[in-house]
Amino acid sequence: MLDEYLSGEARRVSPEAPIPVVEVRSRTHNAGGAGNVASNLTALGADVSILAVTGEDPAASLLSRALASRGVDTTCLLSDAHRPTTVKTRVIAQSQQVARIDVEDRSPLSPALENRLLANLEAELSSCDAVVLSDYAKGVLTPRVCRAAIELAAAARCPVVVDPKCRDFSRYRDCTVITPNLLEARAAALDLEESLEVNALGRALLQLVARPVLITRGAGGMSLFQPDRAPMHLATTARAVFDVTGAGDTVVAVLALALAGGAPLPVAARLANAAAGIVVGKLGAAVLSPAEIASLGRFETEAEDQRPTVEFTRPAPGLRR
Question: What percent of the chain has pLDDT over 70?
Answer without folding.
Answer: 85
